[in-house]
């Protein structure tokens, strides 16, 4: 990665729920354009970390900086407006709405409906803005190859297509940082290959910075620039795929547990 200044810095973040420690003094950074994966056994704290970055959880201790700005206390909506988008482990689509309308929801932070511009809308501003958003959504639909279901009700789609629609809605925000929580969970091999291709293109062609939680180690090793391993809420290792996957502590805590592979999240 050519640019060394981090887009995201997580500094000594700890998270407690009562007496339970979900995260303990975890630090890492992600550079612009990087595809950074977080792996670890079930209950390791991976989703808790994404929730801290996105603003759903506020760390008990530590700080989170985005583009050099401390965002630790900001709401999820405020962080989304700054350019942090995400998908969820469990699908969070509006099942009764069309694919097109679901993706349009992802554009709402980009609408220019403030007081100063509102008075000019009767002159055609609203129509121009609507066309701009429609064009952006159509580009995403083409990119994710879902044009054939653009008018379909989201709740009636196959699981794999619904995961694509959720990704479409997340990237409709035009995020600088995209958080992916198990984007390939529950998919068959062909669906996983498609999703991996889309994620690589978002990184390489769209220049999007990505943090991904994923338990398919083949995918993680193939597409990640760097990997961090969490175990019981602590950082166990961080580095390239080769370094991390060959680490003896990682093998012992995670990769060697073949019998539990399906349970890993």
Automatic annotation (TrEMBL):
Keyword tags: ATP-binding, Nucleotide-binding, Transport
Gene3D superfamilies for this protein: P-loop containing nucleotide triphosphate hydrolases
Keyword ATP-binding: yes
SUPFAM superfamilies attached to this UniProt entry: P-loop containing nucleoside triphosphate hydrolases
GO MF annotation list: ATP binding; ATP hydrolysis activity
InterPro entries, per the entry: AAA+_ATPase (IPR003593), ABC_AA/LPS_Transport (IPR051120), ABC_transporter-like_ATP-bd (IPR003439), BCA_ABC_TP_C (IPR032823), P-loop_NTPase (IPR027417)
Any single Gene Ontology cellular-component annotation: plasma membrane
ABC transporter domain sequence ranges: 8-257
PANTHER family named among the record's database cross-references: ABC TRANSPORTER ATP-BINDING PROTEIN, CONSERVED COMPONENT OF ABC TRANSPORTER FOR NATURAL AMINO ACIDS-RELATED
Protein name, per record: ABC transporter ATP-binding protein
Species for this entry: Tistrella mobilis
Lineage: Bacteria, Pseudomonadati, Pseudomonadota, Alphaproteobacteria, Geminicoccales
